[in-house]
Structure formats: C-alpha cells, structure tokens
Structures
1.
Amino acid sequence: MERSDAELIEGCRRGEEAAWEALVARYQRLIYAIPRRAGLDEDRAAEVFQDVFATLLESLSNISQPERLQAWLVTTAKRKSWRLIRRESSTRSFSTDDETQETEMSNLADSALLPDEAMRQLEEQHLVRLSLAELDERCRTLLTILFYSTDPVPYSEIAARLGTSEGSIGPTRARCLRKLQTVLQQKGL
Amino acid sequence: MRMTPNHISFERLAEMAEGRFTAAAGQPETAHLADCRRCADELARLERTIQLMRADTSTDAPRDVLSQTVQMFRARFPRREAASLVKRVMAALTFDSAQLAPAFGVRSGAQTAEARQLLFSAGETDVDLRLASGDSGWTISGQILGECEGGRVEIESVAGGAAAGGEGARADLNELCEFTLPPVPSGSYKLRLHINDMEVEVPELQLR
C-alpha cells in the first residue's frame, strides 16, 4: 500500500530518508515539468527543481496541511520558475531597478508561460501516471506502449512483448483502460 | 461488436475514444450517445484520459539532479543523529567459571565438559553467558539480567568470516530475555546484544 503524502511528510520529519526518497520519486517528474513547460532549459529547470525540494526540506516542520503537498509543490515550482525567468529577463533588459516593469514581466510570465490550463493538464497527467503505476504490470506495459509511445507500435510487436496473440490486445486494452478509469476516479479525476 | 441491451460496451467506447471507431450518422451508437448521459460521460472521460496520456511529453529529472536532491536530506538529517541514539557499551568480564579452582574431589575434566559460565557487566545490565561444546559445535546461550524489554543477539567471527552458515548467527530474546544461538564451530567470536536503546558488545570470546 502506497504511503500517503501526509505519512511521507511525517516520515521525513522523523528523519526517514526512505520517506524523502519516496516523495522525490513521486513528484520529480511533475516538478521538473513545470520549469520546462515555462520554457526554461534543462540547467535552469534543474536549478528550479532543486530549489523547490530544498524549500520543502526547510519547510517540513511548517507544513500544516501535508495532504495538500502537491498544490504546495506546484505553486512553489511555478513561482520559482517565473522568478528565475524574471531575474534573467531583467538582467538582459538592464532595467532591474524598474519595479513596474518587473511586476509586469512576472505577471506576463505567470499567465503566458504557465497558464492555468497548462498547469491543470500537468497535474492531471501526473495523476494518470500515478494511477498507471498502481495497475498490474501487464496493463502498465500495454497502456504505456499504446499511449505514451511517440510512434505507433504495430500490434504484432505489442503481442510479442506481452507474450499474447494480436487478437487479445483489444479486449485486454479495454480491460486495462477500465481499471485505469477506476483508479483515476478514486483519485478524484 | 455486441452492445449491452441498454448501453454501449466499454470496449466499443474505448475504440471510439481512441479513434479506432467513429460512429457515423444513422449508426445505433450515435443515437444512443445522443440520448444516454451515462455512456456520453464515460466516453468523454475515456477521451480525456487518452488525450492526457498521448499529450504527456514530460521527462524524468536528470539522474544526477535526483541524486543531489536525495542527498540534501542527508545533509539536513545526518545519519549519525539516528546512530547516536543507540548507546554502545563494552561489557566487562566479572566472572568466569573456567577460572575457578576445581573443588575438592571434582575432576577438572568433568568441569570442562559442562557449560562454562561467564558473567559480563555493562553499566546497569549484566549478561549471563553459557558456553557448551557438543558434536555440532559450540552453543552459546544466556540471559540478560537487569532492565530488558526484548532485543536480539548477534555473533560474528572475529577472523572476519561469518559464523554459522556464512552469514553470522543471531537470535531474538524471549520474554525472559533469554536466548540460544545456533551452534558455531570453534574460533574467536564477538557477541553483540541489542537491548533497549543500547548495543552491548562482549569482547572476544574464545571457543576452543
């Protein structure tokens, strides 16, 4: 049984490294995706990523609603992303003293680079990945091949990888999608 | 494709959501979806899930970044903090039955055939050890005297090789804080007792 965010936060507070590792593993992809989605390159995204987790580490004892950890992480990643963008833009424009321009720029970065719809989509994709991870290996493999592959994979290849016949892929796919929908529903999507 | 009497089958809905089947005008699915909220909602949810998966271009954070992030925790909560909670105590020998002069009329040979008793003291805890040799090797048993709420005992060959089957031997304390370790061959051993928040080490035990 997966430990909840609240349980992992509690474990971290007790100094359990395994709890911290589990938290990082759970959210790493989502948190890294936010600065990347805002247009930051890999190095800058890594900077934001580490900054977010460093802030979490420092705030462990102050988080009053650990069950809302995801929202906290997302907001923090979002803010740190546009702060970095603002800082770099300001440096380039030689107008660091111009407060009005900075504010405008941050607003622009916030709404244009990380619009609410894009953020919602990142969070929902995170939820789908978490749900997929809860399925049995066969379903996980099949749905990953079918829906996460960049190029379509021929049924013959899928059948070979699953050790099954091409004819059974359709019914298996439906069964796996149904399971995924059930988990997603439990998670509120 | 068969439909359930009232609703479109999940398999058909999945095909529609994936774009493998499009219900054209006049087909029964089209008419059903127009009237059935349940099937229309199910289809919309499936379409959304599939769209989310297909549009997911996110990647894992680089491995070195992940590794550094995990290490942050070690810097914040050094492992030695946890280790320091366990007090390590070296036990001192206070009694050894082998050191006693044979009683009048008792042959020394008879004494060595019996279990040898050793008493060790570690702070407020005493450890009573019995060493007995037999066909299968040496058996170490004993009891913790003093405050004890369970724990375990481990033995390790001092020569570096593990005792009893190559991985060391261990035993849990029973409710009377007694233990009996699996037999080990002759040699030099180190015994560790993990009791309460304390690790008591019994220095080199010569089993010959």
Note: DSSP finds nine helices and no strands in chain A.
2.
Amino acid sequence: MRKPLQYALAAALGAVIVLPAQAEVTVASWGGAYTMSQQKAYGDTFTGGTATFVNYNGGLGEVRTQVESGNIQWDIVDVLPHEARVGCDEGLFEELPRDVFTPAPDGTSMDDDIMVPVPNDCVVPQIFWSYVPFYKNGTFDGNAAGNPSTIADFFDVAKFPGKRGIHTWANALIEMALVADGVAAADVYDVMSSDGGIDRAFAKLDTIKDHVVFWSSGAKPLELIESGEVSISLAYNGRIGAAMLTEGADYVVNWDGQVLEEEWLVMLKGSSNYDEALAFLIHASAPEQQAGQARWINYGPMRASGLDIIAANEPFFNTGVNVMPHMPNAGAALGNAVFANPNWWSDNGDAISERFTAWMGQ
Amino acid sequence: MAIANASSAPILTADGIPLRVSLKRSMRRSKLRALILVLPAFLFLLIVFILPIGSLLTRSVDDSMVNYQLPLTFSLIENWDRQSLPEEVLFEALYRDFTTVNKFFIANNAGASVDSSDAGWWLKIPAKGPYMDAIVNINPKWGEVDTWYPLKQLVDDAHKYDGTKAAKKNKIQRATFDLCSELTPLTNARCSKLFAALEKWDGESVPGELLFAAIYKDLSSAQKIMIGKSSTRMNYEKPGWKGLVRKSSRAFKKIDGPPYQEAFIKADDRWSEVGFWQSLVLMKDPQTMGYYLNSFDRRFDVDKNIILQPEERRVYVMLWWRTMLISLIVTVGCLLLAYPVAHLLATLPLRYSNLLMICVLMPFWTSLLVRIVAWMVMLQQQGVINDALVWAHLLPDENRLPMMYNFTGTVIVMIQILLPFMILPIYSVMKTIPPSYMRAAQNLGAPPSLAFLRVYMPQTLPGIGAGVILVFIVAIGYYITPDLVGGKDGKMIGNMIAYHMQKSLNWGLAAAMGTVLLGAILVLYWIYDKLVGIDNLKMG
C-alpha cells in the first residue's frame, strides 16, 4: 500500500536534512506586523517553551507535503477559514481535546466564547480580519457627491471618480459586488448559490473593470493610495490600522459592506512536539492573550471575552490610543458586514477562481 | 608461418599476465574511478530531478484515491443509464462506500474492477462489536497469524530503535502512521489503537478480539480522512461535492437501513440531482486524462466524449497562449537589447569592457524583489516615467500610461531580469571571432552592413541559439514576477500551477500542467535541433 517513490524521496531528503532534537515550537504565520503581534502577545509571554515564528505564503501545499511525507518542520500553522476546514477534513491537522482550553472569565467554554460556530475540532481561535475599502482623507474634497461612505459608493466611479484598488482573487469581491448591488448582507450567500447570482456579481464588477488597479500583496494598497494611483482601495483592515494607529496616516475606512474572514491556529498532524505545541495553543487562545494581540494590531479577537478585556482597558493600543473603533468585529463596523462563508467557498472556490482569472484577463 | 604463430600466442606483460587481461583490468579500474566521480552527480540528478518528474507524471493521471474510496459505487455505476435518478442499489453502494470499512479488508480493491457480488462487500461489521467474526467473514485471511505478523514487526522495529528519548518517541509515532499506510492508501492516518493492541500481542497466538477492535476503530478514523480527500477530488469534477459530502456524512450516521434513496434525499435534496451522479462516472477509472483535458479547458461529458468547459471557466488555453506570447516577446526583446551590448563587450578594450560586464552582472547580484519593486516605482501611473512625461507635456495628466500591473509590466520586468542570460552566451561566442574577419571582408569590397550580415552574424548564431533557448525556457515557467507585476492581464501559466499547488491543492491538475510545460519545452528543443542543430549550440 506504500507509495515507493514518495518513500524513497522522503528517505533521501531525510538523509540529507538531519534534524536536531527540538524543544521549541515552530509556528508558521504570515509575517510582517501580524506575526510581530503574535510574537509579542503569544510568543514573548509563553512560558512552556520557546516559540519560533517562520513566514509562509498561505495555502496548504507545504503543510500537506510535510504531513504526508512524515518530515514535519512546523508544529503550528496560522490558516485561513477555508484551509482550516479542508486541512481538518483531509487529516492534515491534529484533532484537539476541547476541554483543555481556557474558558472565559464567566465560565463560558472556549468554543462557546468564539463569535462564529467552530467548524471542527482541529481549530484554535485567532482573529477576525476583513477586506474593507479606505481612502486618504481629502481625496474627495470638492467632489459634488461628497465623500464615499458605502460599498455601493466604491462601485460608483461616476459619483466618486478615480481608480479602485482590488485584489487579484475573487474572495470578498463577489460578496461586496452583491451588497453594492443591493443585496442585504445576510442574504449574500443565498444569492450566490442561486442561479444567476454569480453572473450578477460579475456584472457589477464589470462596471468598475476599466478603473481597477490590481494588487496581490497586503502592503500594496497603501502604496497605491499614498502615490495617488487609486482613489479608493480595498485592503486588509490591519494594514490600514497599522498605518493609522502607529504612523498617524490620515485615512478614512468605510466599514459598510466589509467582508470578515476567520483566522485559526492549527497543529500539524504528527508533530513531534505535541505537548509543547498544545501548551502554546492553550496559551495563545486564552482571553488575555487574545486581547493582548490587539495591543499591537487592530485585528479583532475571535473570543467575545477578549473583546471585553480590550473595551474595559481602553486606551489599549501600545501607542496609547483607543483601538476599539478600529476593530472589524465590534460596534458600528458590524452594521452591514458580511461574515465570509468558508463552506460556500470550499465548494465553489475553484470554479469562481477560474472564472475570475478569465474575467481579469479579458 | 612463424608470423602466424607469433600472433596467435598471447602477448605477455613483464609480470607474465596476458596483455589483454592486464589492459582490461586497468581499464576497468579507471572506468570504476570515473564512475565513482560521476556517481554523486548521478544520484543527485536521480533524487532531485528524475524521481520528481516521475512522480509528476504519475500524479497527473492518478485517480486511485477516489477509486479506493468508492469501489462498490463505481463497480455498479456501469449498470446505470446515466440519465434518470439511480436506483436504490446504487444509493446503497454509495452508503456502504462512505460508511463501512470493508474495503480495507478486501484484497482486490482497484476501483471499478471490484467484484460486487462478493458477499464480503455487503457484510456489516457491527459498530459496537464484536468485530472479529465479522471481519474474518469478510476476508478469512484476517483470521491468520501471517496476515498480522508483518504489522507486529513494524511495532517491534519501533521498540528496538535505539536513540535519544525524543527520537524514540518520534520513531514510535511514525510507526503508528506506518501501520495505517500498510492498511490504507494514506500516509497521514494514525493507527495508534492498533499499535497498542499489537504491543500486547505475542505474534504467535491466534489474533483475538482486542486486535480486531483496534483495527476497526483505527480504520474508521482513516476512513474519515479518505472521505475528506475524496470529496476534495470530487469537488474538482463538480463544484458542490465537498459540501454535499460534509453535510451528508453527518446524516449517514443516523441511517440504519433501507430505503437509502429516500434517506439520502431527505438528508440533502442535491442527491436527487443527476449531475452529481454523472460526475461520478467520470472518476471511475484509477487513471484519468481529466486533468490534462482540464488544463486545456476541456472535460469529459457523461459518455466520455471530450467537450469544452462552460464558457466562463475557459481560462487555461488563453493562459497557454499568453505564456507563449510573453516568452516570445521577452526572448526577442532580450535578443535585440543583448546583441549590441554583447558586441560592445567583446570589442571594447579590457578596462572598459570589465566595467560594462559588471553592469551586466549587477542584476544577478541584486535581489529579484528589489529589482521588481524598483520597476514598480519607475513604471506605475504615478511613477517616475509617467511623471517625467507629464512634466515635459508629452502626456496629459489624465492619460497617464498604464505600464505596470498588466501585460506590458510583465514583459518589461522579465526582459530586464532575463537579459544577462542572453548577453553572456552571445558575448562568449563573439569573443572568439577574430576582428580581422570583418576587416578582411571589408577589404574585399563588402560594405559594412553586408560584411556584418554575411561574415559576422553567421558566426554568432551558436551564441544566439543558446541565448534564445535559455531565455525562452526560463521565461515560460516564470511566476513570481508575473504575480507581482502581472495585475490583470500579465499572469502566466506558472501562476496557475502555483495556485493549484498551494491554494486549491489540486495537485493532479498542477502536475498535468507541469507535464504539458515540460512537453512544450521538449518539443521546442526538438524543433530547434531540426532547424539549427543542437551541435551548433555554444554557451562559451
């Protein structure tokens, strides 16, 4: 039943790379200010060992290679909602006992403390992040229609002139296009599953197509806005927040129609540091640490009790300013927000991705 | 006669050994020495090049996982008319394929070639035990010590391992995975219950209930992983399978008997859609050409005719052409820019040409990302070049040229990055052409242009050939640069391969596209050989 080729390969590689015995936990994450916030909030406060952070580019390709060849280099990975489900389904992650995690101060268990349903037993809560439009204050001074404030305005280049910065994949764009087209945030996925729903989203995207600059890395939208290349851009809310909170950039964020995505931590199956890695996960998911991360970046803790800690201790951000108004999953920001549905995307993501690539290239 | 005699007697060396033998011996020794010198390079090639290509080729047609997961369904689906809703028996087969572990105990389990009349497929192992009788009934082989013994040995080997405590712990953990990969096509399933049970077994007595209970439980969890992997695969064939399987798996646990059809449709009414069943037909064989078709925007219909993908999903053919076009433009662009530079390099006095050479090599010493970002600063619409053009009133401010995040951007940046690959081979060939040839041609009355065309250029052809092949082959597989600067219409096929490797996890499709790319390069190489001749290739 073995696959001789893979085994030969794994053996050969194993012979080349002789690993020293590690007592430390390796966490693969996205890098930049985000990993820095994890390092500060989880890594530096972790007493059960040392946590080393390495960068990766997302996706499960490397994880699958490591787990299936048995040559495991990472213990913990920071994954997107879709990957959290596929990886657990395919047996790439450890299924974790749920009763070992720290409950909320009022005794609510961790899984009930999380603001969305927990998809499986592999995941440990991290943060909410979102795709959201923003512009530089003053861009629309003297504009007849004033400043843009809704997602519909983002799609209206006649009233709000200038180019639009959008990313090169379909996630969130489909949802935003539909909300801009008048679909209620709660009904977005029903429309997307119905006949003609996707056509409707692409028709809306067509209206801005000639005014679009595409970006593929998180730092890019800020450059596009700074250089004036685009007037409004979508971006990860944490990137905008980092510029506003730490560098004092004068940006305006339109939370209307934002698309919220989950971010989870998972442990690779077969990790040789199971105990240390589990200790790290317990530590990182405790309300205290969940809140602590928001001291360094404005991504929203997944646990409601984490948000409570932040709200009670404002000004919470490390520069001494309030961070709650910049949280994607609290207060007014949630007014017309779409929570991304990873189940829909794991069914239809590949087909939409092909269609989106074709659309971009037309 | 004397001469004939002398020639027939063997010639001896000084120590009395026949010359032939001695010669052979020393030849063998030097051959062996040569072989030892070559061996590391050969092994290196084998491990990092030939084996992965082999694995690429197998993966691009491999469909064995889903066939292992749905053997009964695939063996019975032949009888279905492919138009109406399947009958009860097919629903039952699918139910069994998803919920029972019989498949792991039956030896011949190769997709559609399964004998569905074998009673072993239809026996039900009671979920709460006893397991032994049921499993032995499915396949009597499992009642024998010999079947279990190799598994026991895996456990013993792990225990015999001598090393640090952590290393030993890891070794034992790996052994639990190895057990499962003996029993299933998975390498990431863990058989720790079986491992524990085998530890207690002496390896000689008749296997007892303890072992059977353990193997049943471990295989049941392996089954979950198989379902996860198969549903990922099935979703490639028809979007929606993943959700359907996820939702139904929960409902399956509550089904305890016929009618299955009704229970399925009650769990999710998509089971009454013929489309999902039709897509099963396409996955029926352990080898598939589906991935190759997919990489050319085609697919099988339910009768295995090749048809086009729905219009909005046609993207790969367009990307293949664009990849070829970009590579071609980049190659020609590099050639046009490189030729004069190489000539200058070859003819300038040494102290100037050295400086120029450093300029040519500079990009090699700079990070790829730095160079790309520099180009972004130059080319974007609010960038240096556009600013300069607007400032000089050559361009109205509202009509700035889009030179970045599109086709143009990709081409410009790739030309800059690949330029040294063109300059160097051409330069090294030009260096060997004596300047006196051109002077001689002109002395004999040829005007400079004719002398260049008839005398100089033909001699540089080997260098041009090498440069063109080098640049084209490197360009055709590019993906980081197009990803960063490609924007809307500058993406190449390499980006799609990377997407399927990392994000969609559709390794079959990625492997198929990789194989096509490899094939395309071989074909181009062959054409080049026919047109120019590989012997004429000169790197220096």
Note: The first helix of chain A runs from residue 4 to 16.
